[in-house]
Amino acid sequence: MKKIFVDGLTGTTGLVINERLSHYDEIEILQIDEHKKKDLEEKKKFLNAADIVFLCLPDQAAKESVALIDNPNTKVIDASTAHRTHKDWAYGIPELSEDHRKRIMTSNRVANPGCHASAFALAMYPLVKAGILGDDYPVTVHTLTGYSGGGKELIAKYEDSSEFNPYHQAPRHYGLGLNHKHLPEMKLHAGLSEEPLFNPIVGNFYKGLVATIPIKTSLMKIKKTGREIQQFLADYYKKSYFVRVNPYDSNDNLFDGGFDVTGSNDTNYCDLFVFGNDEKGTMVIMSRLDNLGKGASGAALQNMNIMLGLDEWTHLI
Ligand SMILES: NC(=O)C1=CN([C@@H]2O[C@H](COP(=O)(O)OP(=O)(O)OC[C@H]3O[C@@H](n4cnc5c(N)ncnc54)[C@H](OP(=O)(O)O)[C@@H]3O)[C@@H](O)[C@H]2O)C=CC1
Ligand SMILES: CC(=O)N[C@@H](CCC(=O)OP(=O)(O)O)C(=O)O
Question: Hey, which residues are catalytic here?
């Protein structure tokens, strides 16, 4: 029986992880008294008694919790941004390569990736690694995301039912200082030499995220059409259970419904799409996931499954 402690259990990410953990027979969940959850002495006991700790906390609190761990057998999966570019931490996207998967399997410190960054890296990493896109490709990425990505504070703003709630009027751009906290991990884990230009937009829906990356054939190092890129990605991910590469030219007609950003919700899949115009040599890669699924809690549980030697899809399908 493995002992699991979720630090930040009552937050947005923690609650989803806790609900999913209730389906496992082979684990025991250690419960800290809600009133003592920020008491470091009390917390230290739970952190060191656990085989696996999930940190579902703000960055500073996550660092504080890691510093309290002195049990060499305690493995940590950190959902925060704090350790995602730290060289001693494995980056928790096993599908990127066999090396990524092995590192997660053997490491006792795993940084769970950000939701925007997961969608971005799954689209970009194979293309940069294969040299199709140079590491200096001038990358732009737009994301459209549900408001749960902003945690309890943003959820409260969106779910405030005052008569006039500006958040309900139209989607909102943010991160306009071009310094979003995911930029360092996007650059590092996509294998780029520079950060992408990143333009996130949040809409009035709870969850679901899509990253859209426009690409021009003429700027590629190895020139490929949209159709060839789709085929390349389909081959790259053919053995990955949770990355699905959809057929080229899937229906994108707005009057037939258009593209549904929520289409991967309540799953642990990342769905990749390539739309394009081969005559013009232009394409967009779209990478869609549930920001609380493959973008957070689902990914954290997938990493736990790998770290415990279980099938990675255990209780995720
Ligand atoms: N929401 C999402 O889609 C995603 C979030 N993440 C990351 O996961 C982490 C948690 O985010 P999220 O769940 O959205 O945040 P929330 O704000 O919803 O929840 C954070 C929780 O942590 C608790 N908390 C804060 N400080 C401490 C502390 N020192 N000790 C114990 N508990 C504490 C809070 O309790 P209280 O409210 O009582 O202070 C709250 O319950 C963040 O680092 C975020 O970046 C990652 C991927 C996706
Ligand atoms: C809508 C919204 O605010 N989203 C968050 C990202 C949430 C996420 O998944 O990333 P972290 O794990 O890094 O928090 C943002 O853009 O900062």
Answer: 115
Note down the domain range covering 179. Answer: 115-290
Q: Is residue 198 domain-resident?
A: yes
Residues 206, 127, single domain; the answer is yes
Ligand found nearest the CA of 115: 2
Shared-domain flag, residues 161 and 260: yes
Residue-level pLDDT at 227: 95
What does the pLDDT read at residue 254?
Answer: 72
Helices (H), 165-245: 183-190, 226-236
Q: What is the pLDDT of residue 81?
A: 97
Shared domain check, 175 and 90:
no
Of 57, 93, 116, the one to substitute when testing ligand 2's pocket (max ligand atoms within 8 A of C-beta) is 116
Q: What is the pLDDT of residue 282?
A: 95
Q: What is the pLDDT of residue 256?
A: 79
Q: Does residue 79 have its Cβ closer than 6 Å to ligand 1?
A: yes
Domain-embedded: residue 235: yes
- Residues in the chain with pLDDT values less than 70: 250-252
- Return the closest-CA partner of residue 282 out of 195, 200, 223, 221: 223
Query: What would you measure as the largest C-alpha separation in the chain, in angstroms?
Result: 64
Ligand nearest to the CA of 203: 2
Q: Whose CA is nearest to atom 33 of ligand 1?
A: 8
- Do 145 and 171 have their domain in common? yes
- CB of residue 77 inside a 6 A radius of ligand 1: no
Q: Does 72 share its domain with 119?
A: no
